[in-house]
Fold this protein.
Amino acid sequence: LRLPTHKTTLVFFFTSMALFTRSLAVTRVVASQAAQEFSTGLSFIERAKTLGAKALVGSFSHRDGFDRVLKNLRVDRVETGRVTASLVVDESLVNFYGTLHGGATSTLVDVIGTMALLSVDASKPGVSVDLNVSFLSAAKKGETLTLEGVVLRHGRTLGFTEVSLAVDGKVIATGRHTKAFPEHKHPKPAATAAAAHDPAPAH
């Protein structure tokens, strides 16, 4: 790069460079904010499909539906076939006795199991066909849950996962979650469909 030598030209050159650098920095900030706002409005399934399973790491991404009960869930790590997360049991998740509600436990098995499947194939969240939970102990309000979801088997039509919930290393519940991967059938072209209903006459 050959720099100009005239004093006035030098001042103009360095001023222009400073303005350009500042403009570039502002553009990067705006782009980052826009990307963050875009991803924040996605459900965790949409987020994984759009940005990849690794994008699940961090605060739980949800829409304003039932999943919002897990608004404080944090995904700590995503590996192929395995997801770990953490969640503080707050007032919205406890039952009459002040411990983690069974429905919340089942929802966690559903969500963490689905995330584990997404870590294998982000395009296939599946639909639930079976979910069972074993309640071994209770988690009290204020305690932190450590969650782990593992894919036991990932086939063409079915995915099987196992999820564990623990407090201070002690497992308080385990769940098994099975999901189906429906095949999306594409409609036949109009000409083909018409031919199927109106076969050519025999000669």
Remarks:
- The chain has four helices and seven strands.
- The longest helix spans residues 7-40.
- The radius of gyration is 26 Å.
